[in-house]
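Support request from a user on the community tier.

User writes: "When I paste my structure tokens into the form, the page sometimes reloads and wipes my input. The last time it worked, I copied everything first. Here is what I submitted, just in case something in the input itself triggers the reload:"
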């Protein structure tokens, strides 16, 4: 008498195989996505460190008339380059050494929390760093809010500081890095 597999046994074996294969493929895809997200966060963290170091190197090399106020570092972080009007502009700045990285200094105060103390040597800088792989010539707060589908949400529209809200939202979801760093300005104005 010949023994073989019945049609039902073949169907059950195929189902078990397909179930196992689907589960393994799903785990592989989750691992690939997690690795890509980790690579992105690493890239953002390295860019944030580089930007903070560049700001640290430039801080204190103010004009001969004296130092800038901490509030004048808002924007691209280089007070000697930007004007106070740039702080009100909601644009993000491309970070030239790493294409696809955009940043903005969203807060700068002295050690006492005063954004207007010109003679402060220690500044607390709040930096937002975003990865944008699209070839955009400019990137703004409004565009980021639109991409995150925040523009129509009541909590975003009711926020007093929309940039801070957007920065918190994106950082919590892993789309951006917020870096808070202390910058010690070399008091070149005291020479």
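"...and here is what came back when it finally went through:"
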């Amino acid at each position: 008498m010949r023994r073989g597999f019945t049609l039902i046994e073949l169907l059950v074996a195929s189902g078990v195989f397909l179930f196992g294969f689907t589960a393994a493929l799903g785990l592989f895809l989750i691992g690939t996505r997690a690795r890509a997200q980790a690579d992105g966060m690493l890239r953002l963290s390295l860019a944030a460190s580089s930007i903070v170091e560049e700001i640290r190197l430039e801080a204190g090399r103010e004009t001969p008339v004296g130092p800038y106020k901490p509030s004048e570092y808002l924007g691209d972080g280089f007070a000697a380059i930007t004007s106070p009007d740039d702080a009100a502009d909601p644009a993000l700045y491309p970070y030239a050494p790493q294409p696809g990285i955009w940043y903005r200094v969203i807060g700068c105060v002295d050690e006492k929390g005063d954004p207007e103390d010109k003679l402060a040597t220690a500044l607390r800088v709040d930096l937002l760093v975003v990865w944008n792989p699209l070839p955009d010539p400019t990137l703004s707060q409004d565009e980021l809010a639109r991409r995150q589908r925040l523009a129509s949400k009541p909590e975003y529209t009711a926020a007093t500081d929309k940039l801070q809200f957007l920065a918190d939202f994106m950082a919590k979801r892993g789309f951006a890095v917020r870096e808070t760093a202390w910058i010690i300005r070399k008091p070149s104005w005291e020479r």
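Agent notes: The reload is a front-end session timeout and is unrelated to the input. The CA atoms of residues 133 and 168 lie 20 Å apart. Residues 7-58 form the longest helix (52 residues). Escalated to web team.
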